[in-house]
Amino acid sequence: PPEKPLNRGAPHRKRCPAEKETASNGGSKRKLVSWNVNGMNAVMKKGFVEALQRLDADGVGIQETRLQESKLSEKMRSILNYRSHWAFSTVKKGYSGVALYTYFASRAVP
Fold this sequence. Notes:
Helices cover 15% and strands 26% of the residues. By secondary structure, the protein is of the alpha+beta class.
């Protein structure tokens, strides 16, 4: 059956990432989360690691990291045994940027 359309009138959750479970190979489910953090340095000071632990997600996509590669700390790179992959803005310092944290093995990320 087709997915139900989003209820545009529903109140938005504040400071909480959107969650989605999808079926993967073999019928098992994976929990995937997408989160616009609006600055990785700021969210690290506001309980980001604890929030990831509570989410217990297999994969977490992070948007708006606003980091330069030289500012990526080991603490950000290695959280709770996740593998992390990062992309930084090459046009404007501290602008945009994305990251992916995964528990499952991923293919090469360009």
